[in-house]
Amino acid sequence: MAFWGGGFAGGWSHQATANAQAFRRGLDGWNDDELGKLYDHRVMVRLLPYLRPYKVRAALAFLGMVGYSVTSYAQPLLIGVAIDAAVRRPPDLSRLAGVSAVLVTFAVASWAFQLVQQTMTGYLGQHVLYALRRDMFEHLQRLSLSFYDRHEIGRVMSRITSDVTAMQELLTSGLLTVFADITGLSVVVVVLLTRDLQLALLTFCVVPVLLVVVLFWQQRARAAFVRVRQAIAVVNSTINEDVSGVRVIQGLAREDQNVRRFGRINRGNLDANVDAGRLSAAILPVVELLVAVATSLVIIAGGLRVLGGTLTVGVLVAFALYIQRFFDPIRDLVLQYTQFQRAMAGGARIVEVLDTRPDVAEPARPLTPADIRGRVDFDGVTFEYVAGAPVLRQIDLHVRPGETIALVGHTGAGKTTLAALIPRFYDTTQGSVRIDGVDVRQLSRTTLARAVSVVPQDPFLFSGTVRENIAYGRAQATAAEVRAAAEAVGAAPFIERLEDGYDSVLQERGRNLSLGQRQLIAFARAVLADPRILVLDEATASVDSQTEAAVQRALGLLLAGRTSVVIAHRLSTVREADRILVLEDGRIVEEGRHADLLALGGVYARLHRTAYETGAGSHAS
Amino acid sequence: MLRLLRFLAPYRVRLLAAVGSLLGSGAFVLLTPQLIRWAINIGVDTRQHDRRLLVVVALLIVASALLRGFFAFWQQYLGEWIAQRVAYDLRNEIYERLQRLSFAYHDRAQVGEIMSRVTQDVESIRMYVSMGLLRLAYVLVLVFVALVLMALSNLRLALVAWGFLPVIGTVGIVAASRLRPVWLRIQQEQGRLGTVLQENLSGMRVVKAFARHDLELRKFEREARALFDDSYRSTRVMALLSPAMTGLGALAIVATVWLGAHDIAAGRLTAGDLSAFLIYLAILQMPVRTLGFMVNISARAHSSGRRIYEILDAECAVREKPGAIELREVRGHVRFENVSFGYDLLSPVLKGIEVDAPPGSVVALLGPSGSGKSTVVNLLPRFYDPTGGRITVDGVDLRDVTLRSLRETVGIVHQDVFLFMDTIRENIRYGKPDASNEEVEAAARTARIHDFIAGLPDGYDTWVGERGVTLSGGQKQRVSIARTLLRDPRILILDDSTSSVDMETEHLIQQALAELMRGRTTFVIALRLRTVRRADQILVLDRGRIVQRGTHGELLPHPGLYRQIYELELGDQSERRGAALPETAAGG
């Protein structure tokens, strides 16, 4: 079946792949599919320095490799000499003994060289891998949130895992293998040329043919391998999605349809792999044939000359043995060719990450005021995620220490962005945000983090214990302090009911807790961090009434005595705020207390009325 | 492991052809040294002086290479084909199994764990088929025949090879078995490093908010260090053992040369014989060295096979009866008769549930979280089967009808909307793939989402991301309502899904839901009282039992859970009415 091509199914899934890839590319401008150049100077300049601390070891590895190549490729030559000594009449036994001794020495030497080379390469490789990973990770910590808004986590991850591995292989074993192959080839070429020019040229005459064939093959194989990678990516993402969404699928009785669809996608992967497999297999007979042609040419020409007495049998044997080894490094180099391209592409992606400059950079001379009172000022703040499309326009806002501000407005009005500027998740496009009169761009990161706490709408918990999660913002907190924080927000009762209390291990993202419970833990975290300024995105997702009441109580406590900026969704929060800001289109359009704004009869009053009517309307219908 | 053979069975013919090619290629691999030996002997043997014979041998070498190449191609291609095919069949079976397994399975299983089985374990089976099974057979045949041939030619020299090759093979196997636990640890450590990384990147907002980069870096370094230690350990073992194997091979060659040369000097052996021996040694070294890896691949495939069969053998709790009937022309009369349910028999989740929902009526389920509301509605499309009692639709037991017809009858709007990575159009017609564009648009109109979609640059052909990232919560919900509307189910399940959106969206959703519910028997899981007021009957659940039932008017005057919830939630009248004020800008 389908021996000579993908057919319809293959074509279909290639199309699907292309669509999905194009879609993802559009999101962040990253292109992960292409193979790179054979040699990318920019990448090497940037990444070769990772070898610098290991100069001596790298040199040893290099020497070991050269030594190994020379000693092992000299072997057929020595064997030839041994045979010549043996076939001579009378046999030259002392010479035989001498050559054998050299052979043993070479065997031992090649063992020692290889040991040195592999030990050093292993050492280098793992250290470079570790250093590259660590640097990338550290750099990722520095990158601002705008980077994470643009890039999918999975793709960032693949850069720090598989791309780094590919690059490490290239920097260590890859480069060495290439050198080893080239050294080996040179040794063979030199030996053959010096032993017998005519036979050597006969051997080499198949090389151009091999190169042409291989380069032609390479082009087709390359495309096939790219398809293989894409096809398996689609298969895996389909399974991932359809397992995650299995409840919806069964609810809609889509199983049969999905099984058929997956069959097609899976088929596309099969076809791509079988195509690539056929290409890989096809190169075998060609190489075999060329080796045989070279061998037979040497045998005819060499054999005739042995018969004519102008060549010793030892040289002929040496040639026969060399031909077997001559093509290995060539084949190897061809394989390395693709590896190189892949690694270079990976390297280019690594460099792209490492060279991404954080939009929000730590100031050169950070200020670390000891005492923060909690005044927040926005002066003429404009902010754009994308140039030319301001999300905030000329915001002027002055918050007194201890004041509670509620932000209200439609989706996209700019509430979240405004709140995110206080902890300096982003830098303003124009204007400045100041805390106690100091521009946040001048504050050190730790000072800022101690002054401002953020409670996001969907509380993010780390895997680890409940205690670690509460103490996330203050690692040195004592057990008693953690408990006090949990009690303050009313999280203590449910935590103590957990099997191991505060030491209960949370599953990934705290899946074993309800949303309300996760919120309470996030509150406890903020209470323990005890910031002067609190930025809170009120959760809107449904929790049951009891939890809701607990969250409300905790919220009151959390806001008390701090400067608070709350993206408000609950009417009670809004009503108790010292000041309400109504945002529309990136501007503050109304400002005041609940009653005043209602009386004003503007945007706020309309928002409030819609809420009221929707509530009433749903009863009536 | 033996059960894996079932996957090979359909490809018997190709498997035989592969084995045939393998034998053929092996035979010609072994023939070439014999030809070279012959040629060299002709050259050395001054008595023969036969030039023509030399050309014949040379031609034979080329011919043999042609045949060897031919067989090698088929051996590799067929091996790859069969291995890929087995992986393909495995993936199909696993996928289908996963699609059919009921909720009980998916509640326990983790997506990451399933994915590692579908990717890594299937891959290791594929490797096993191509490298372990076929390649191992090839190596064994090759080594055996070569050793016999060598013994026939010169026993003394053969004994050298007999001595060295098993040692090299053993070193390889020992190395692989020593490394196996290290490799397993490396795999786990890679997984852990991935988890730390994933968590760090997903939680970047929190990390930044608390400036805990130092802590995160320490966590990462700890895992990266563990991975480093084991990776380095494995490279050290390899660095010790792999040169040892090369060295042993080189020594075998020296010994052969030494002994052989003396035999030549003594006239017991020709130069050609010796060359053949040396080429055999060269040919055999590589496969013998990799023996350990092949054994390893087999061992890994063994545990992978077990993990895969855990999925394939998973008991599907909800099964279709043989001869199940189609549920047709449903009026929508739903009855729960003394239904009980438990995930295990010891701790029932539901006890003695009695519900009678006449066609077109609205039933609201209310109660604290964990009271069993979701479980009740999950029994209706048979996501789970009751452990006691029965559920009927128009008097027919759910277990007597086909799953497909049942699930076409029951539509669900989930609270957590899941959109597939596809266009909006495909998402809307996800449950009815043959729906026309007009039908899709009509459903979108009714769900009050058409205007929004039409306003997008790509309209209905707009892609929505992995979890519909480009749409807001309210938009996703309305897409999901359109999806359900398109299927026109007689019975409807609504998970109170209207709390996380702004007021205007809320209003649109209320309108859409009202349209959706018209004329259908509806079960609503309610978190807010406002949703339950219009119900024909309200069921108040507590710890798996219905503790109160009636309409709002009937329930409110009596003390009980309903009034408690009511008072708790309505502590502030306007708070209730404006329960959802403006919305989050998440995603926007």
What are the salient characteristics of this protein?
heterodimer, A: 621 residues, alpha/beta, six-stranded mixed sheet, elongated, disordered N terminus, B: alpha/beta, ABC transporter transmembrane region fold, 2 domains, four-stranded antiparallel sheet, 21 helices
Can you describe what's shown?
The complex is a heterodimer of chains A (621) and B (588). By secondary structure, chain A is of the alpha/beta class. Helices cover 65% and strands 11% of the residues of chain A. Chain A contains 22 helices and twelve strands. In chain A, the strands form three sheets. Chain A has a six-stranded mixed beta sheet with strand order 6-9-10-3-11-12, sandwiched between helices. A four-stranded antiparallel beta sheet of chain A has the order 2-1-4-5, covered by helices on one side. A two-stranded antiparallel sheet of chain A has the order 7-8. In chain A, a hairpin with a 2-residue loop joins strand 1 and strand 2. In chain A, helix 1 crosses helix 11, helix 4 packs antiparallel against helix 5 and helix 11 packs antiparallel against helix 12. The two termini of chain A are 61 Å apart. By secondary structure, chain B is an alpha/beta fold. Chain B has two domains: 310 residues, ABC transporter transmembrane region fold, CATH 1.20.1560; 235 residues, P-loop containing nucleotide triphosphate hydrolases (Rossmann fold), CATH 3.40.50. Chain B has 21 helices and twelve strands. Chain B has a six-stranded mixed beta sheet with strand order 6-9-10-3-11-12, with helices on both faces. In chain B, helix 2 packs antiparallel against helix 3 and helix 5 packs antiparallel against helix 6. The C terminus of chain B is likely disordered.
